[in-house]
Amino acid sequence: xxxxxMSPIVLLVAVTVMVxxxxxxxxxxxxxxxxxxxxQKFLDLYERQAGVIIPDAVGKSWAYKTNITAENQQAVQAAxxxxxxxxxxxxxxxxxxxxxxxxxxxxxxxxxxxxxxxxALKDISKLEQLSEVLTDMSTIYSTAxxxxxxxxxxxxxxxxxxxxxxxxxxxLLRRLWTLWRDxxxxxxxxxxxxxxxxxxxxxxxxxxxxTGEYWKSQYESDTFEQDVGALFEELxxxxxxxxxxxxxxxxxQYGEDVFPSSGHIPAHLLGxxxxxxxxxxxxxxxxxxxxxxxxxxxxxxxQGYTARKIFEVxxxxxxxxxxxxxxxxxxxxxxxxxxxxxxxxVCHASAWDFHNGVDYRIKQCTKLTLYHFNTAHHEMGHxxxxxxxxxxxxxxxxxxxxxFHEALGDTISLSVQTPKHLHQIGxxxxxxxxxxxDLSFLxxxxxxxxxxxxxxxxxxxxxxxxFRGDTTPDSYNKDWWDLRCGLQGVSPxxxxxxxDFDPGAKHHVPNNRPYIRYFVSFVIQFQFHKALCEAAGHQxxxxxxxxxxxxxxxxxxxxxxxxxxxxxxxxxxxxMTGRTKMSAQPLVQYFQPLMTYLEEVNGExxxxxxxxxxxxxxxxxxxxxxxxxWTPVLLLTVSF
Length: 640
Fold this sequence. Notes:
With 640 residues, the protein is mainly alpha-helical. It has helices at 8-20, 36-65, 70-94, 104-114, 124-142, 156-166, 170-183, 185-204, 211-217, 224-254, 282-285, 297-302, 307-320, 328-333, 370-389, 402-416, 419-424, 435-468, 476-488, 516-535, 551-561, 570-577, 585-602, 619-623, 632-636, and strands at 145-149, 152-155, 265-266, 350-353, 360-363, 490-491.
């Protein structure tokens, strides 16, 4: 520390921000300047400075996420601090204006500039501390390796994830599940309470009660929490039917003794580290297994697909709608595969806007699977959104609400995954159209879409409770599993205690990214899909629609995307769907044939007990298994 009490990083940042702020001019007292010409000068200044400081912060973050080193970690912390201090100054300057008689767009820009979230922390040392906590948790998560024996440790991607997807060895899955939480959540538990305290302190200076309230404010609705709660209740019967069906099929695979009497499904048996989507257990649960498989993995390999070719196919879909091709920088600078040089990277897929009008990228450790094929379309949907609102002021370059950005690429994927489309692009050799094939397709989609709903809903239920103070550090894990057991019907495969921190085993928690956006997106993507199918002139059931080559559908998408966040989300939503409210009905319509089938085959064996099962083995017992032989050869069987 220096004699001033500031670290060298903070001093460097403070000096940089002072330089950036040159030229601001005279500042009026808060809320007293009603001169629109002065306000426009300030907004012009904001644009010029944003064009320097935001791309720099994004670039430093990209460098860190694609090469996790101490040097890059320090650089990104400095860049975040620099950006946060700049936001504070901009917020202070925006607050001088009395916007009562200003045009709506100017008023909205000035309000957004003041609403700076955790950057509002006044104490620079606390801003530095918050940045350190976030990068420390992110680094723990992204560099975690599971040691399969005393000398062989491997990262989650691609090795462990591949094992989870294809292994049917219950003891192996249980051990992997436990190890991952030991190497991620448990190691960051000490940091999370610090994050909560600092984040709440920041947003309270903006007038919010807590961070959860700040996150919810991005949906610009006083009833948002009640609205998503009502949507979840409306969709719960679909999930319960799917849960009962999958539980019964998995019992046949693993035996009754693996399942608790409470009706829960053990979380390690669903083909996914977080049991959030269940499409990796298709081979055990499909109602008519004799039908042609939609698993295109083998065909991607046979046809010589690469990571780049997957993204080229995704680009072709968007271009077929009359939308934008990817810029040159995308192909030159994206990280579409895990680097082979051994460096640590964040494999979690993400799309990047460098805010300079030319540089847009995707970071994804792509594998040749249907999941990554879909994810490529999802991430490219983000880039298309970036490209279409790039003409707007910086402050409006975002989704109409956070769920819009997540929904857009998934909407496209609803067309991409149809047997009709996969057949058209040569990835499904045989197209069978009958009731059994229809139900098999809907089951595969339900394992993605319906299975996800409670998981997408509950993560922020837990975090909102934490930020409010209802869930305290001494009950972090208990309250987490109360929600998972109660809402999702999924239970831990081993006993959990407050020494554990299982929320931290999910990427979005250590990276402090709100998650309710995904629940919102899983609802509104079906509203988008229905509207685009109508624009494309589709005839027939909603789940059979493929909008490929429809420029009419593309025009509708473009009209929505081009508005960015310049208006309250209900207006671009109306442009897209003709409605101003979220509705579960298109999702219900899409899956209704499967719901009818599930109700017939399930009978009354539906549901689970509210509380978690009590008769679980200890994690120590799981870790003492000696029958598991761990060798690199084991992983060779699951690599692509």
